[in-house]
Design a protein that fits this description.
The complex is a heterodimer. In chain A, about 25% of the residues lie in helices and about 25% in strands. Chain A is an alpha/beta fold. Chain A is globular and about 55 Å long. Chain B has one helix at about 150-155; strands spanning about 35-40, 45-50, 55, 60-65, 70-75, 80-90, 95, 100-105, 110-115, 115-120, 120-125, 130-135, 175-180. Chain B has a 6-stranded parallel β-barrel. The interface of A and B includes residues 48, 60 and 64 of A.
């Protein structure tokens, strides 16, 4: 499938993340599933009624919640601590700093042979280092089959919420963010950085959303 | 003066999702439509529970609960380590196992479910704790609740997950505990 970049203009940095935005990625996803069987969806965020209602509206589907937000928050906190400590060390030593492994297999409650058609990873990649993103992609690969879609939000803002935002999906594929008022500096992972750490996932679409996030849609190609 | 009617004894109002939880300890009669039975907080059942009337569980059940076309409420102190099949299932306590409902499953703010649920309509109220999958396939009808498997039992337990307790009789003749 040809890679499409919806944002042809230079990427812009915005100061604040807007609360609501239309998700072009979701439109793309439902177009893909329009004629197929009911999709099996793995949501890595917390279980929320708004999400359930949205998926009930779309079609009958199988939705699994495997909330990794606590793991991601803990990893991000440790990462900030380590980064702060490493600033005091020499550049050579800093380059060797290895961030904590996520040990995601301990936190995945799906059967090992379970497979999904869509995985929603929300904004977790913003809170992970490159090696942790690679670990996430490898772990998720266990639950993918050819053509599985992975949906992520990448912050392109100067700051981002201190903790991963809680996303609600509203009517007409609109995404609503409920986030912490406390903010931290955004890592602003470059799209190429994310792509190069996504293991067997290949980028399918990238959209620049009005809320300052990039929306990435990946396709699993084993 | 308020007068209790037959309709008041139905366990759950489909319009509001609110269950009747002030049912007496033993209220069911054989084949009594609109009645509900209660498993009290001091009762624990180790085995299978089947019945043809609505049921409220305040105690603990390990095994299976099969109510066919009737409703189940797991009260706020209720603990189930069981696979459950019913028409409407409302969880205010803790459940570990597979839930199948032909109409609706509701998990209230204090409710906790670890396991897979299947129902055409699912309501997760704010603050509830749910870990597992939701299958919103309306074509699946609740039949006999699948027996607890080793895999189900080895899932991560909830904070309220209780161990095996001595078997005691159910508080209603229509609810039949079967030794496992």
């Amino acid at each position: 499938m040809a890679t499409a970049f919806a944002a042809s203009r230079p990427l812009q940095v915005v100061d604040d993340i807007a609360a609501e935005s239309t998700s072009l990625g979701l439109k793309t996803i439902w177009n893909k599933f329009a004629n197929g069987e009911k999709p099996r969806i793995l949501d890595l965020g917390p279980a929320r009624q708004a999400k359930v209602e949205y998926f009930q509206l779309q079609r009958s589907c199988q939705l699994r919640f495997n909330d990794l937000s606590e793991v991601v928050v803990r990893a991000h906190k440790n990462r900030l601590k380590q980064t702060s400590a490493s600033r005091k060390k020499s550049k050579k030593k800093r380059q060797g700093t290895e961030f904590e492994r996520l040990n995601l297999s301990d936190h995945m409650h799906c059967a090992r042979d379970a497979q999904f058609d869509l995985i929603l990873a929300w904004d977790f990649v913003n809170y992970l280092s490159r090696s942790q993103i690679a670990e996430l992609a490898r772990e998720l690969g266990h639950y993918c089959c050819k053509g599985t879609l992975l949906h992520v939000f990448v912050a392109n803002t100067a700051t981002m919420p201190k903790k991963p935002a809680e996303f609600s999906i509203l009517e007409n594929d609109r995404i609503k963010l409920d986030s912490d008022h406390e903010v931290v500096a955004s890592p602003r992972h470059a799209p190429t950085t994310i792509m190069s750490n996504m293991d067997k996932f290949q980028v399918m679409h990238m959209y620049q959303l009005a809320n300052g996030y990039h929306e990435h849609l990946y396709d699993f190609k084993p | 003066m308020w007068k209790k009617t037959e309709g008041d004894e139905t366990m759950q109002d489909s319009q509001t999702d609110r269950p009747m939880l002030n049912t007496p300890a033993v209220s069911g009669t054989p084949g009594g439509a609109g009645k509900s039975a209660t498993i009290g907080p001091s009762i624990s059942i180790n085995g299978d529970v089947t019945g043809e009337e609505d049921l409220v569980i305040y105690g603990s059940v390990e095994g299976t609960v099969n109510l066919k076309s009737n409703n189940l409420v797991v009260g706020d102190k209720g603990q189930l380590t069981a696979n459950v099949s019913a028409r409407v299932i409302r969880v205010e306590g803790a459940v570990k196992g597979e839930l199948i409902a032909s109409e609706r499953i509701v998990i209230t703010p204090n409710g906790s479910v670890t396991g897979d649920i299947t129902a055409p309509r699912v309501v997760l109220e704010d603050g509830c704790n749910f870990k597992g999958s939701i299958d919103m396939d309306a074509s699946k009808k609740p039949g006999k609740a699948p027996a607890q498997t080793a895999e189900t039992q080895s899932r991560p337990s909830t904070s309220n997950g209780g161990g095996a307790k001595p078997q005691q009789p159910a508080s209603n003749p229509n609810i039949r505990p079967v030794a496992s």
